[in-house]
């Protein structure tokens, strides 16, 4: 089998998506997600200008060699753009392999290690009351694990709280929105939020929270310690992870489990965190960390240190990534949990798929390959529009992490 063609599809059913389609001489094609929220065209150009010419004529079964060729051959290694482009190729090749062998991808990753994949959803509210309502609604939908974010008294807006209940899409068309941030107000607001959650919903429901890179290690240590009575499943991105050593300090002060890594693009971003057991869950995703070939290696390394997977799964990862994440989550032994932010109906129509949700769990389906398609005719109706993630400034104007 040979790769005869490959091209990038950019569509925007409510938000931008970049999809790579690789076509073979046997009529089988594969899809890979290359969406990098707010920097979509960078990945599209990297694929079109620098990667696709090197793919034509290759054997699509050579997932390892093509991965190494694109990683080492680029010379300029790693980074979100490069690794999202490599991921798009990698997942499309696994899709082709599964279709050619007439088997779902999870069978090529070790086969089923569980019947289905536990997922967590997002619940949020502008205040504790609204957050309680949204958690109750999602509990009703059967979710056993719910991430809870709420507004911060005194701040007009904050990460994780949508303008309308039930839908959160942080990327906005036009130039970046500037939010205002005040750490102390945030730190004061989180423990009461989870005290109320536990008082209302009891101990059984898994509760998660995303600090979204906005704390220093000692602030994260304080928050983790104050949340211990509420037994969270994890606090996520407690502090920016460029300084992996910063997690040692958090670890010394709290037993609240720590998750990090949605912005990671290779094992090297997590190497110290994992081998020192400074974290409990690694959130690197198929689309931003080099695809299934690299993510499987990362998961296997993490397994040696009792670190589980907790892959990112926001709406800015397309249904192609959601499907790949579910095949991965069904197979890897040290699976922890999978994030699930349901896409919009218009997105689901552009990417018809086999995966399904039921009672707090998901399954990728048993169709050969990924079990996702791309309706290119429908996709053409949704023109790309540049969009950006917000930026954050402290009250004195200092730029900080959003
Ligand atoms: C968040 C994401 O889902 C999460 O945990 O951190 O919503 C993140 O902000 C977006 O994916 C950024 O594009
Ligand atoms: Mg996050």
What does this structure look like?
This protein is α/β, with parallel strands linked by helices. It has 2 domains: 3-104, Enolase-like, domain 1; 108-367, Enolase-like C-terminal domain (TIM Barrel). 35% of the residues lie in helices and 18% in strands. The protein has helices at residues 40-55, 63-72, 80-100, 128-140, 183-201, 217-227, 246-253, 271-275, 291-303, 319-331, 345-350, 376-379, and strands at 3-11, 17-24, 29-33, 117-125, 145-150, 172-173, 178-181, 206-210, 234-236, 258-260, 281-282, 308-309, 338-339, 356-358, 361-363, 387-388, 391-394, 399-400. The strands form 4 sheets. Strands 4, 5, 8, 9, 10, 11, 12, 13, 14 and 15 form a 10-stranded mixed sheet that branches. Strands 1-2-3 form a 3-stranded antiparallel sheet. Helix 5 packs parallel to helix 6 (217-227) and helix 6 (217-227) packs parallel to helix 7 (246-253). The chain starts with a strand and ends with a strand. D-mannonic acid (CS2) binds next to loops.
Layout of helices and strands, plus pairs?
Elements: E1 3-11, E2 17-24, E3 29-33, H1 40-55, H2 63-72, H3 80-100, E4 117-125, H4 128-140, E5 145-150, E6 172-173, E7 178-181, H5 183-201, E8 206-210, H6 217-227, E9 234-236, H7 246-253, E10 258-260, H8 271-275, E11 281-282, H9 291-303, E12 308-309, H10 319-331, E13 338-339, H11 345-350, E14 356-358, E15 361-363, H12 376-379, E16 387-388, E17 391-394, E18 399-400
Parallel strand pairs: 4-5, 4-13, 5-8, 7-17, 8-9, 9-10, 10-11, 11-12
Antiparallel strand pairs: 1-2, 2-3, 4-15, 6-16, 14-15, 17-18
The structure holds D-mannonic acid and magnesium ion.
Magnesium ion is lined by residues 210, 212, 236-237, 262.
């Amino acid at each position: 089998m040979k790769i005869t063609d490959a091209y990038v599809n950019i569509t925007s059913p409510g938000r931008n998506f970049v999809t790579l389609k690789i076509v073979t001489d046997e009529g089988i094609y594969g899809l890979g997600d290359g969406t990098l929220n707010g920097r979509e065209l960078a990945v599209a150009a990297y694929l079109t200008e620098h990667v696709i010419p090197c793919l034509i004529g290759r054997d699509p079964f050579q997932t390892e060699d093509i991965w190494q060729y694109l990683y080492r051959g680029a010379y300029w290694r790693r980074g979100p753009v490069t690794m999202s482009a490599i991921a798009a190729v990698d997942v499309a090749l696994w899709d082709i392999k599964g279709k050619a062998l007439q088997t779902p991808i999870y069978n090529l990753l070790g086969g089923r290690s569980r019947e289905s994949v536990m997922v967590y959803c997002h619940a949020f509210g502008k205040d504790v009351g609204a957050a309680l309502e949204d958690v109750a609604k999602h509990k009703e939908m059967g979710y056993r694990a719910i991430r809870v974010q709420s507004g911060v008294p005194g701040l007009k807006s904050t990460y994780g709280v949508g303008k309308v209940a039930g839908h959160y899409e942080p990327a906005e068309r036009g130039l970046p929105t500037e939010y205002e941030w005040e750490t102390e107000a945030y730190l004061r607001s989180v423990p009461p939020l989870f005290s109320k959650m536990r008082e209302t919903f009891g101990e059984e429901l898994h509760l998660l929270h995303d600090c979204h890179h906005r704390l220093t290690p000692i602030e994260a240590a304080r928050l983790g310690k104050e949340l211990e009575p509420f037994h969270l499943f994890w606090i996520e991105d407690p502090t920016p992870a460029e300084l992996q050593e910063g997690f040692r300090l958090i670890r010394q002060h709290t037993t609240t489990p720590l998750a990090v890594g949605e912005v990671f693009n290779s094992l090297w971003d997590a190497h110290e965190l994992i081998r020192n057991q400074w974290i409990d869950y690694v959130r690197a995703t198929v689309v931003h960390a080099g695809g299934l070939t690299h993510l499987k290696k990362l998961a296997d390394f993490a397994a040696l240190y009792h670190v589980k997977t907790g892959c990112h799964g926001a709406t800015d990862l397309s249904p192609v990534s959601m499907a790949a994440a579910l095949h991965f989550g069904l197979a890897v032994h040290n699976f922890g949990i999978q994030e699930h932010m349901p896409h919009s109906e218009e997105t689901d129509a552009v990417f018809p798929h086999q995966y399904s949700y039921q009672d707090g769990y998901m399954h990728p389906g048993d169709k050969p390959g990924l079990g996702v398609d791309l309706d290119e005719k429908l996709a053409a109706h949704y023109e790309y529009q540049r969009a950006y993630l917000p930026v954050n400034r402290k009250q004195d104007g200092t730029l900080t992490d959003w």
